[in-house]
Amino acid sequence: MTLWTVERLGRKGDGVALSGDRRALAALTLPGEQIEGEEEAGRIASPRIATPSADRVRPPCQHYRACGGCSLMHGSEAFVKAWKVGVVTEALRAQGLSVPVAGVHVSPPRSRRRAVLSGRRTKKGALLGFHARASEVIVDIADCHVLRPDIQSALPLLRRLVVAGASRAGELSLTVTETPAGLDVAVTGGKPMEPALFQTLAALADQGDLARLSWDGQAITRRPPALAMGRARVVPPPGSFLQATAEGEAALLAAARSIVRGAGRVLDLFAGCGTFSLPLAETAEVHAVEGLAAPLQALDAAARQAQGLRRITTEIRDLARRPLMPDELAYDAIVIDPPRAGAEAQAREIAQVQVPTLAWVSCDPVTFARDARILAENGYRLCQLFVVDQFRWSPHVETVAEFHRR
Q1: At what angle do helices 77-94 and 365-376 cross, to 10 degrees?
Q2: Average pLDDT for residues 338-346, to the nearest whole number?
């Protein structure tokens, strides 16, 4: 066995191991550890820990070594927290930027209110869970340490949905969201919705007391799966994007609110169903821009029924292809929450205007750092950063950054 020393963790949480002039990736390792194993195609498939790190802990999950849903459960909470902050600050440093970290939020165990599970029929029943690391194999989960208890309790029912509606060759994707009205389950990849299947699915929805079951876009709604966003109650489209934990959403919103406090007119870009727009409309007029019609329709409906909100306007627009131009950016503050690809085109347009305050939310440190450099080179000062870890034990990390016009 070759002896390796783990130098650091890569962005996806794998250890970067060195042996002489050789380099390889090794999952489930920590910086400073000595490991044994053989490299193949740039990876050490099954490293043996020869000298463990002081930050190594025993993973509480029985599925951890096989399941790809988590990759950092073997590190202490203090280590993972510091590593995620470091991922963000190093990405900024690579772009010539530095910023004080004003706060770090870590969502607690068993707090994921939204998860995307994979399901496949088998001869004996069904597999339901997450994919194994770098594999199409589904690891069947019995007890997951990230899911909310109501989702955990529904796993047997979700397996029955897979048995009822999956073809033997296909794989289902099940987006499961916990709401106060019950679980909202959106399934894609299933058999066509024929009358017999509809009856079976409706019966399962009754048995599981689901709020809503959507099957490739066809919904069986027993109760509206409404979620609170500020004073408003939003019924999101089936499978719609939502923040993964209520605690993480609250941390993101608190940071954005503190940044744009006092603004009379706020522009919310990549607004989704209104995570930021609806709470911010309690004190400011908001223009919400989103590329998809369905989330904005949900936002509109919630705004009309809520009491005490200031004016909210909406606009359907693909901001990657058609960013708002300088003459459309006359606002007191902008909140922007782009996808992982970031918002380079929109950043270049914002860089040309005199908007006083920006709250820039990001789920990818590298694309955020690229966009932040564009702003910094054109007169915006990066003032402070909030780090939010709502994907506990995964390599994902989110941030909210405060920018002011110089």
Answers
A1: 40
A2: 98
